[in-house]
Amino acid sequence: MTEVGYARFPSELTTDELAADIAVIFHWSPADTGKMNLSELLSWRYQAAKRCGQQDE
């Protein structure tokens, strides 16, 4: 696990996986997530994890 600010993420998590998690929860397209920098991806992925009930990530 890697801790980034207020959230912990698996170290092997790729930007494509971050974008996929965001897309599943928020129904955003790759064009939407493709414009995001890493910090934004991590922040939105954290929000997606909270919304799907994930506690550890």
Automatic annotation (TrEMBL):
Organism superkingdom: Bacteria
Name of the protein described by the UniProt record: GpE family phage tail protein
Protein species of origin: Proteus terrae subsp. cibarius
